[in-house]
Amino acid sequence: MNTTIESLLGKIKELQERSSDLEFSQKDRDEALGQVHAYATEFLDAIHHTNAYSQAPSNPELMRLDGKKKDLNELLRIYKEEVARKGINPASGGHLGYIPGGGIYASALGDYLADVTNEFSGMHFASPGAAQMEDSVIDWLKDLFGFPGSAVGNLTSGGSIANLIALVAARDQHEIKGEKIMKSVIYLSAQAHHSIQKALRIIGLSDAILREVKLDGGFRMDPKSLAKLIRSDIEEGFHPFMVISAAGSTDTGAVDPMDSIGRICKNHGLWFHVDAAYGGFFILIDSKREMFKGIEMADSLVVDPHKGLFMPYGIGVVLVKDKKAVMQSHHYVANYMQDAVKEDEVVNAADVSPELTKHFRGLRAWLPLQYHGIEPFKACLEEKIMLTEYFRQRLIEMGFRVGPEPDLSVSYFYFPSGGDENQFNQDLLDLIHKDGRVFLSSTLIEGQFLIRIAILAFRTKLDTVNRALEMISQALEKLR
Ligand SMILES: *Cc1c(COP(=O)(O)O)cnc(C)c1O
């Protein structure tokens, strides 16, 4: 089977022609970008009046891939009808469920450029600028949370992977493996996010002992109970090695007393992990800074810019003080990477994360922070705190019971209907979901059904809260 150069060239040229569609011409780019921009504009212009939630399911038939070429406008129409209009609308200020998202436009512009240039930010060697840009974002965060310059960090896809990286580092620093696992104790609150439990399972610590620490009336970890548990575990021959606390728990927004917990960890040589995925950025607000005192003692910390900095989904951060502990699990030099290992000192993203090739997430964080400066972010976070307070006061006026004074911008309420209260409040939430103007979610605390308020979307404004109150009041009327 001798292919002549000539026939090879003929075939290559033919394939070149057939694959040329993948490179947009300038005219194609202008046209396509125009269509995408037109839809984005339509979406954003309507965002303040669009429902935050629709129960309609999406149609798989319309999304099926058949390998054929299609018109962009047709594809955008499918996106609009089948994706953007169904389920929760996370770009809407009316998203007050779970932990709301954001989607600031400056990040979208960053993502556009990151995708067009396709920088490889995993290694300084490949893209010194992109890697440095990510490092600069991480350095800013180290400063913000009082971490030393020697700490390492990584921009992850979100808080779950960030928690995973932190917990692996804790495991490796304390050499929790083999038979030691069964005797090792991890302390956490019943309010810990489920990504923590998931991470512990993934990293082989499901056989470690988990102790739930008692909480105070505001759902914060009680340091006295923690200290007592640790002492009694040591006496009984167990091996306490880590405390996992929350700076802003998902369910109630509680900020654990990190100063006391940090000191207890120091005294006993335990790894101190702080999950600040939701709450961390409230440290930017003067009136809340004190609440975060002690966070600088953490050995590892997780914070989600796609929550508290209103960025689109796909960016979390982990900071870890002990560089060696992180590198032990993630640093690996393969033969085909030998050109890349010249500079020992610089830490590459790929050395502190399971990822090698990854999205250049730094730009979607760096661009908005530089373009806007920090002031509007601070004001927006403070606005969320005030709106939560306003929401609660108005609910009380309407006859609702609300949860304890929240540390941040998550709270809950229920109507004291008498009779089957859980059913009544479930029915109330069902009506709220059917309405859809504003989206709320629920939780169970000690068997009680509670409707949650989580105010974090940057588009949630006074108008939004008033709309929510009107909707809740109408739903309540229907049930009474
Ligand atoms: C959201 C959240 C997580 C998980 O983060 P993802 O970005 O959703 O992966 C972990 N912990 C807390 C406290 C959270 O609020």
| Uncertain ranges | none
- The dominant shape is globular
Helix content: 40-55%
The overall pLDDT, averaged over residues, is 95
Write up what this structure looks like.
The chain has helices at residues 5-18, 26-46, 60-63, 72-84, 105-117, 128-144, 159-173, 180-183, 194-202, 223-235, 258-268, 286-289, 305-308, 323-330, 362-372, 375-397, 421-435, 462-479; strands spanning 53-54, 87-88, 152-156, 184-189, 209-213, 239-246, 271-275, 300-303, 316-320, 401-402, 410-414, 441-445, 448-454. By secondary structure, it is of the alpha/beta class. Helix 11 (258-268) links the parallel strand 6 (239-246) and strand 7 (271-275). Helix 6 (128-144) crosses helix 15 (362-372) and helix 7 (159-173) crosses helix 14 (323-330). The structure holds pyridoxal-5'-phosphate. Residues 99, 158-160, 163, 193, 195, 246, 250, 275, 277-278, 304, 316 line the site of pyridoxal-5'-phosphate.
Helix-strand layout with pairing:
Layout: H1 5-18, H2 26-46, E1 53-54, H3 60-63, H4 72-84, E2 87-88, H5 105-117, H6 128-144, E3 152-156, H7 159-173, H8 180-183, E4 184-189, H9 194-202, E5 209-213, H10 223-235, E6 239-246, H11 258-268, E7 271-275, H12 286-289, E8 300-303, H13 305-308, E9 316-320, H14 323-330, H15 362-372, H16 375-397, E10 401-402, E11 410-414, H17 421-435, E12 441-445, E13 448-454, H18 462-479
Parallel strand pairs: 4-5, 4-6, 6-7, 7-8
Antiparallel strand pairs: 1-2, 3-9, 8-9, 10-11, 11-13, 12-13
This protein binds pyridoxal-5'-phosphate.
The site of pyridoxal-5'-phosphate has 14 residues, from helix 7.
